[in-house]
Amino acid sequence: MAVENFTDIEGATRKPGDKYSEFTEKSLVGVYIVQDGVFKFVNRRFLEILGGDKKDVIGTEYTKFIAPECIDEIRRGVSKMEGDPGEPKHRIFRAMKTDGTKIYVEVFSLQITYEGKSAIQGMALDITEREMMEGELKKSETRYKTLVEEMLEGLWVSDENDETLYWNKSLENMLGYRFSEVIGKPVHHFTDNENSAILKKELAKRRKNKPSVYELEYVSKSGKRIPVIVSGAPTLDADGNFSGSFAIIMDISERKKMEGELLRYTEQLKMSNMLKDLFADIVHHDFISLLGIIKNYTDLMIYDEKDGQKVEKLDVILNTVERIICMIDDSNKLARLETEEEPEFKKMDLGTMLDTTIEALKHGADENNVTIVYTRENKYLADVNPVMEDIFINLISNAIKFSSNGGKIIVDVFDEIDEWKIMVKDNGAGIEDKYKKSIFGRFNRVSKEGVKGTGLGLAIVERVVNLHKGKVWVEDNNPCGSIFYVTVPKKRETLDAPVV
Ligand code: ADP
Q1: Rg (alpha carbons) of the chain, rounded to whole number
Q2: Ligand 1: residue whose CA is nearest its atom 8
Q3: Strand pairing partners for 66?
Q4: Which numbered atom of ligand 1 lies nearest the CA of 330?
Q5: Whose CA is nearest to atom 13 of ligand 1?
Q6: Whose CA is nearest to atom 10 of ligand 1?
Q7: Nearest residue CA, atom 21 of ligand 1?
Q8: CB 483 within 8 A of CB 474
Q9: How far apart are CA 107 and CA 105, in angstroms?
Q10: Ligand 1 pocket check: which of 393, 446, 456, 475 to mutate, most ligand atoms within 8 Å of Cβ?
Q11: Distance in angstroms (rounded) separating the CA atoms of residues 51 and 375
Q12: What's the pLDDT tens digit per position in 380-409?
């Protein structure tokens, strides 16, 4: 039986196995007939949609299978149709399965005559899955739209001719043009000639399917120049062909301003460093010369003076002057080391440096009745700056200073494969744990009584060690005294000076 003959199916379903029943049973859509508000006929697919048996459905009110929120609307539709036979009606609404689950159905219904009376015959499709998917799609579309509109960066979409298809609110705020003013405008319309050339070069990359990130300067509607970072990528059509570009635009005006300030600050810093160096030079040269005069005259006066008490006083002057000279020397050295970033390195023998240092300090050690034990076995070659010698001078002279009469200092060098480990061990006063770190700071002195010093020696040691990417630390000697260790890498990655 053809569908157009459904309008009069008098007696067609009365006999099971007749042509109508046969057709509807095989149908992939649900078929039903409702008369006097109850189901009179349903096919197998319709029962599948509702998830029940014939006995659950036939003779039951159709409203039982409609979600409560849709009942009124469907009732109105049905009564309108009963009084208006003719065109089939189409409706989508929420139905209810026999177990109460809600589903979406799409129904095409028609007023017919059935068993001599008016009835409604319809076809139903379960479209729950489709509806859900469309719902999800709509949700995610809204989500993306919100994301794109609300994002802080600008989003610019252009077509295959580099003409603007879309730009978001951020771009409106950044460049001052409304989207309606720019739609269809070429993307390089908003730059000067120089930047337009950069942009065109970058856009050419999109046609080769290449994304890129670059800096650019746009000109806003009010004529303001806006520096930006552009992160652009091509968009492709379904066949994988170039169909346009999209770009994320980040306003970097603030960053550029900061960079400018940083540059100015660096220049100022360089200038004040130069002034500091100049000042250090003046202090060093002029003060030391003047102090030298005082020292020489004091020496002469001590030599000529017979009065013991006066000699004592002159000795105090001499010691103080010598201390000031030491302090100026050390401060000057530290100031220079602190601004030094990459000193020149050359291959040198640390053993020779130690020999020279010990030789120079031997006199002081003898005066204090302190013995220095150092047996050199080899050459200890390393890429160093000659300033390395300051480490040895400071550590060994400290060991002499802080040793008691008859003390013994042991100097040794250990081969630690990639580096040398230098040890200066004394059996003097030792250093309490709480000072083991702070003594490397400037002007940090622990035991001052009767011991000359500037409190800068170990700060110089640490700075020199850092410049050589080595380490320095102090441990306790047993039963008394300190052991200072310094490690120096044997090789520097870039060695620019010749071997000496
Ligand atoms: P200075 O020796 O001129 O005082 P340093 O920076 O060389 O300054 O040393 C800082 C302090 O560390 C010293 O004043 C002293 O208290 C302590 N110190 C350094 N070396 C030793 C040592 N070998 N034994 C005991 N104390 C030491």
Answers
A1: 48
A2: 455
A3: 95
A4: 3
A5: 445
A6: 445
A7: 398
A8: yes
A9: 6
A10: 446
A11: 100
A12: 999 998 889 989 999 999 999 999 899 999
**417-451: per-residue pLDDT in tens?**
999 999 999 999 899 999 999 999 876 667 655 56
Atom of ligand 1 nearest to the CA of 426: 23
Q: Which atom of ligand 1 is nearest to the CA of 454?
A: 3
321: pLDDT strictly greater than 80: yes
- pLDDT tens digits, 210-264: 999 999 999 999 999 999 999 999 999 888 899 999 999 999 999 999 998 999 9
Atom of ligand 1 nearest to the CA of 394: 7
Ligand 1 center to 425 CA (angstroms): 13
- Before 227, cis peptide (omega within 30)? no
Pocket of ligand 1 (CB under 6 A): 394, 398-399, 402, 426, 428-429, 431, 439, 444-447, 453-459, 482
Beta carbons of 187 and 163 less than 8 angstroms apart: yes
Check residue 444 and give its pLDDT: 65
Per residue in 12-22, pLDDT tens?
444 444 667 77
Average pLDDT over residues 295-306: 91
Query: How far apart (Å, rounded) are the C-alpha atoms in residues 215 and 247?
Result: 12
C-alpha span between 170 and 149 (Å, rounded): 7
CA angle 149-150-152, nearest 5°?
110
